[in-house]
Structure to design on (96 residues):
């Protein structure tokens, strides 16, 4: 989505990037925890493209395959199997 938005409406893409950066700069959670939360939220919402991107970011800053798996499994009670069935393989692929 961001690629299309950047091409079609760069100012909106810049605004979204600034907003996301402001959210991620909040100090209470460390970067790895933020990525794990984001992975879980993206998976629960069914954002299949975002999950592997953030899984790779989480891996790069020290998250383990098991931590990503647990974050995804925690989406089951709230989101059910549908989103997880699509997002889990994509997230685990970032560790292969």
């Amino acid at each position: 989505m961001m690629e299309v938005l950047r091409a079609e409406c760069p100012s909106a893409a810049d605004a979204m990037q600034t907003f996301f950066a402001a959210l991620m700069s909040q100090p209470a959670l460390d970067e790895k925890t933020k990525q794990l939360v984001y992975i879980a939220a993206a998976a629960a919402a069914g954002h299949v493209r975002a999950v592997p991107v953030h899984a790779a970011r989480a891996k790069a800053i020290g998250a383990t395959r098991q931590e990503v798996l647990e974050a995804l499994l925690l989406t089951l009670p709230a989101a059910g199997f549908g989103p997880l069935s699509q997002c889990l393989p994509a997230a685990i692929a970032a560790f292969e």
The chain has a mean pLDDT of 94. The radius of gyration is 14 Å. Residues 10-24 form the longest helix (15 residues). Residues 38 and 54 are 7 Å apart (CA to CA).
